[in-house]
Amino acid sequence: MAPTVLITGASQGIGKATAILFARKGYELVLSARQAANLEATA
Asked: Which of these, 26, 31, 8, lies nearest to 41 by C-alpha position?
């Protein structure tokens, strides 16, 4: 079972970069952001 990471502000900037980094390393992600359309693009 992979560790899970919660990232807020994942739709842009540092939050998005952090989400991509953790995803590449195999972590399970829980993402949140104020802009749903941008968040879907990140996911």
From this structure: 31
Classify the phi-psi angles of 39: left when phi > 0, otherwise alpha if psi is within -120 to 50, otherwise beta: alpha
pTM of the full structure? 0.85
The encoded tokens of residue 37 equal 């359309």
Report residue 20's pLDDT band, with 50, 70 and 90 as the boundaries.
Answer: very high
Burial of 2-36, coded b for 16+ CB within 10 Å and e otherwise, reads eeebebebbbeeebbebbeebbeeeeebebebeee
Which pLDDT value is given to residue 43?
87
